[in-house]
Structure formats: C-alpha cells, structure tokens
Amino acid sequence: MNVIEVKKLTKKFDEITAVDGISFEVRKGEIFGFLGPNGAGKSTTISILATLLEPTSGGANINGFSVIADRNQIRKSIGLVFQDPSLDDRLTAEENLRFHARLYGVPMSEYKKRADEVLDLVELKDRRDDIVKTFSGGMKRRLEIARGLIHYPAVLFLDEPTLGLDPQTRAHLWEYILRLKREKEMTIFMTTHYMNEAEYCDRIAIIDRGKIVALDTPEALKKKIGGDIIRMQSGEKEKLAKEIKEKYDLDAKDSEGDMIQVEVENADTFMPRLFNELESKIESIEMRRPTLDDVFLSLTDRMIREEQASRKDAFRAQMRIRGRK
Amino acid sequence: MNLSAIYTIWERELIRYWRDKIRIVTTLIQPLMFLAIFGTGLRSALASSSLGIDFLKFMYPGIIAMSVMGVAFFSTISTVWDREFGFLKEILVAPVSRTSIVLGKILGATTIAATQALLLLILAPIIGVSINLTVVPELFLFMLLLAFTISGMGLLIASLLKSLESFGLLMQLLVFPMFFLSGAFFPLTNVPGWMKLLSAINPLSYGVDALREMILRNQISQVEIAKIILRSPGANAMYLVFFSFILVSAAVVAFNRRN
Ligand SMILES: Nc1ncnc2c1ncn2[C@@H]1O[C@H](COP(=O)(O)OP(=O)(O)O)[C@@H](O)[C@H]1O
Ligand SMILES: [Mg+2]
Fold this sequence. Notes:
Chain A has 325 residues and is α/β, with parallel strands linked by helices. In chain A, 40% of the residues lie in helices and 26% in strands. Chain A has twelve helices and 14 strands. In chain A, β9 and β10 (211-216) form a beta hairpin. Chain B has 259 residues and is mainly alpha-helical. Chain B has one domain (3-258). Chain B has helices at residues 3-19, 21-45, 55-77, 79-85, 87-92, 98-119, 124-127, 136-160, 165-180, 193-200, 203-216, 222-228, 233-258. In chain B, α6 (98-119) packs antiparallel against α13, α8 packs antiparallel against α11 and α11 packs antiparallel against α13. The longest helix of chain B has 26 residues, at 233-258. The radius of gyration of chain B is 19 Å and the shape is globular. Classes of the chains: A alpha/beta (325), B mainly alpha (259). At the A-B interface, α2 and α3 of A face α1 and α5 of B. Bound molecules: adenosine-5'-diphosphate and magnesium ion.
C-alpha cells in the first residue's frame, strides 16, 4: 500500500526550477530516502508535501488526501522535523510538546500518556522540565522527533535530521529512527546529503537538480555500478585516463584532486594488468566496493561533497537572513 | 477559528515574555531614559512656555504610550524572523487556521504591551504625579486598546514585508515619525495643518491624548488641560476602535494570503 503518491510534481521559483516533474511512491512502513546534494530540491519537495508551499504543477497525495485540496487533513496526518531548528528554546521540552499537542487537537487526558511515551522513546524523560536552550544539538533534534510523533501521524518527514551533528550523535539518532520503524511501523520520509546514511533506507531516490535520476534499494543501486572501483592518483591524470580508454575501453572519471577512478568487473585480477601494462605514472592506487557516492558520481558525473555542501548551506542561510529566502 | 489554538499561541507569547527578564527590565529602563534625558533637557528650555504644566509631567503619559507601541510593535514584527528561522514554521504546518494564529499573536502582544505599560505607572511618584486608583482600570483599558491597534499594525507589516532589509527603512520612515508626531513631546493643539493631518492618521496620537487626559486630569485645572488635550477619552476610544478594526482585519487578510 502506498502512503505517499507523487505525480509530476514541479515547483518553480521565478527563474529556478527547484523541483522538476518528479514522480514516486512511498509504501507503508518503509524508510524512504531522498538523497542529493544541496540545492537539489529536497526541502522544497518536503515543503510541498507538508502544504507549506503550493506546487507550480503536478500533485501529491498522502494517505489519500491531496496536498492541494485537503490541506488540513494532510496537516493532521503528518509529523515534520524541519531542516532548520523549529523548537521554541525559551520553553521547556514539555511545553514544546504540550503546545504541539494542543495545536493538533490531542485531548489533554491522552496527552500525558503520549508525552511520556515519546520522551521515553528519544530518552529525554529526565529533561522534560528543562528549558530547551540548555539542550545539545542532538537532544534538540530528538525532541523535535518526539514532538513530530505526539499526534500519531501516518508519515514522519525528516529533513536532514542529522545535519550539523557529530558522527557519534548521528549514529545514535539513527538508532531512534530505526527503532521507530520497528516498534511503531512508522512510515518515514527523509532527506539527506550524507551518502552513508542513505544505506539505512529501505529505498532511496537520488535527486539532482530537481529530477530523480535513480530510485531503488541501496543494494540494487550499488549493483548497477557493476563491479569494483579502482582509484588512482597521478600527476598526469589526463594522459592516464586516455591510456586507460585506449587500452581497456574504460571511461575513467575525475575524482577529488589529482585522482581518477574506473569501474571494473573484478579488481583483483585487473590491478596486476594495470601495473604491467600502463606507461603513465601512478603515485598511488586503491580498490574498493561501490558506495552510493559512486552511484551518484556515475549518474551525474559529480560528487556529493559534504564540505562543499555545508558551506553552500551556510551561504544560503546567510542569504535568507538577509531576506532573499 | 479555534479558541484552543488562539489560547495556545497567546500563552506561548506570555511564557516567553515572563522568562525574558532582561527584556522586561530593558523595556522599563528605556522610558526612564527618555524621561531623564528629554524631560530634564527640554524642561529648562521650555520653563517659560505656555504649557501650563511641568514638562516632565506633560511627557510622562506620552512615554507610556510610546512604550506600548514599542513593545506591541516588536512583539509582532518578530514574526518576520520566526517565519524563516523558527517556531512559526511549526505553527504554520499545524492544522489550525491562519486567522487563529494571527489572533493568538496579536492578543499575546497586546497583553504583554499593556501589562508593561501598567508597570510604568510605578514611576508616577518620581515624576510627581499622583494617580488616583479609580482611574487605573480606565487607563488599562486604553493601554489594551492601543496595544491591540499597534499589534495589528505590526503583524500587518510583518505579513507584507518582503525582506528583512526593508525593516531598517521601515523604522526610519514609520516608527520614528509615529513617535515624534504622536504628541508625546509637544502638544498638537497649535501645530501647522500638515502636521495635524499626519497625526490624525497616526493611531499612537489618540493613545497619547487619552492617557494624558486620564493621568493629568486631577493634576491641573480643566482650563489648563483643555489647552493640551485634543479630544475626550470617549472620542479617542472610538478612533482607536476604528483603527484597530481596520488594522487587525487587514493583518488577518494579509497573513492568510502570505501563508
Ligand atoms: N523560497 C525560495 N525562493 C527561491 N528559490 C528557492 C526557495 N527555496 C528554495 N529555492 C531554491 O530551490 C532550489 C532547491 O532548494 P532546496 O529544496 O532547499 O534544496 P535542498 O533541500 O535539496 O538542499 C535551490 O536552488 C534553492 O536556492
Ligand atoms: Mg534542504
């Protein structure tokens, strides 16, 4: 059964097409991931699904309700964790939850039980009466997830839930998300630009410049790459790439710095051939199994680079502060 | 409309205000500074004028009205920041009507601004004004009415404002003129026609006029007070009700359209 159905969804901002005719379905109880670099259109898609933005064309249904015609029904049936923090940090954890519950019409008799339950889930029970300002980034994120759950939504949207958290906190947060799926059979729609996180998803859509370029399970996507990846560092990488093309008919792709990489069926037997037959200089060489990063690179000819992404993000935030939105 | 949502949003504004002790203290100190600097500075210059009353006492009600305006305006205009970086998104995505959100916000700002103004009555003895306790309910009513009007205006502007950059411009072109053309610093009884016109469309001037009449009515004679007052409190109340009706309705419409 499909909980979310998206058809030819398009969103244009003046000259930018942020979302460009995407279609996909999300099944009940799965973790569906939207993976793509910054500016790919992930948050815009979530904003449309959450009824905060109207699509330019196309449409989407959640739980059978249209995001255009049945806004109030949609709002009741989704939980949302925004990319940017949206807690009131002058309030306590409990007050944040209570206000949310009231806005969503959760009966106050029911509320107490649910507050305990969601605070338990994200292990914040002993901080319930503390002001949110005193919380760490990870705790705030967890509280936002708890808040998004308290009205028992059919789908939980998480927009870059782990952005800006340290690796340890990130791993921890993922435990909660996976527990949610297990214990509550919650349908989760999430976005990320961290490749390794997408591996936790049941299915992922890779999105680039507003278009879905691939959609499948992480395993199936990696299989598409074929065999193994060999990465070589060389001071003369153009020459090296040309030689590889001539000798083995393989397309070498630019990687970081002075590195190039090729996909081969079996690296164990291919590497000795390279050593024996290549004339171009190679300074170092490495072999590995494909990751989603490689999938993205092979689909778009570009890398998702975290540093670059977060710098751009900071810039965007700056621009928004200055009112460009 | 949804009363529980309005109440929730109103309550949040109050809790936030109550927890921000620094803000409470600053908004109390600011009027004091105005009184100390302008009051003492202008008092000597105006000593021989025909005001008929000590300048500090003359200015005191105006400063209270200005404080109402400042608090009500900034509490609602903050929605601009909230929209992009904060809690407003959380409210906007909830299944509540835009109208409830607007009313909750405006009523929250109104309550805070009026309460803060009520606190400023503590300063009366320092100024040398004795306030009759029976006039306090009447005063508070006007503070609420003025705060409601200005909150409506603040939220209307926040809903229309395209960028944060225009905010600075707004301050220069709107807030400061509103302050200075409110009658807080000089009586509007003997000013040129253009200034009369501008203060007639300035909601703050009705608040200043009304508060001045109520606070000073037992300080000086009827004849003296008539020289510095434009309208009766009843007339001022009617104008403010009219302004608030227009501004709050416009804010509801603009906010609904924007979001
Ligand atoms: N409100 C807006 N006005 C104009 N352009 C926008 C707006 N929101 C997003 N964009 C643009 O749309 C594109 C997609 O943005 P977004 O959905 O935030 O990407 P992601 O979440 O994948 O990083 C970007 O180029 C961004 O600058
Ligand atoms: Mg985003």
